[in-house]
Amino acid sequence: MRLLVMSDTHGDAEVIKRVREANPQVDAIVHCGDSELSYDHPYLDGVKKVRGNCDRDDRFPNEELFEVDGVKIFVAHGHLLNVKSTIMNLLYRTKEVEADVAFFGHSHVLGAELVDNILFVNPGSLLKPRAITEKSYVIVEFSNQTWTVTGYTDKGEEIFTNHYALSK
């Protein structure tokens, strides 16, 4: 399973198009909110997407829950779960919906961690990054009970690759 995850593009539709075109071999594309585009924008076609605090189109859901290859994926922008202060609310909500992974944005800070065998990933921002200078997105893969998260710049240059093995 291979997923393309981005967030906080804040009106830059072209970066969404560029990143999608650079990563055609994925099972799903996720946008964690604050696209500031219309829900039916062509560059968001087929994308699992949620509403961020800057999105005005109320057709975006606040949360998305879906499965790929038996893996349950939870997506929320994070502003309603106070992710800038703590991921505890996100952890509780992810457990409540029984998801295996949670994707979120809002803080514009690229990062990933495994908590209670649940992977949490923030792809950073493709427009206004915080904590690092590079605009970013991630590719998340799951195979043999191990998550692999690779962060990329908006130009497709690798920032990091981390592996997270599930405990038994």
From TrEMBL:
Q: Where is the Calcineurin-like phosphoesterase domain?
A: 1-144
Q: Which family does it belong to?
A: Belongs to the metallophosphoesterase superfamily. YfcE family.
The protein's required cofactors = a divalent metal cation
The protein here is known as: Phosphoesterase
The UniProt keywords, alphabetically, are:
Metal-binding
- Gene3D superfamilies, sorted: 3.60.21.10
Q: Which CDD domains match?
A: MPP_YfcE
Catalytic activity, EC? 3.1.4.-
Q: Which InterPro entries match?
A: Calcineurin-like_PHP_lpxH, Metallo-depent_PP-like, MPP_YfcE, Phosphodiesterase_MJ0936/Vps29
Q: Which species does this protein come from?
A: Ureibacillus galli
- Classify the source by domain of life: Bacteria
Give, as one word, the top-level EC class. hydrolase
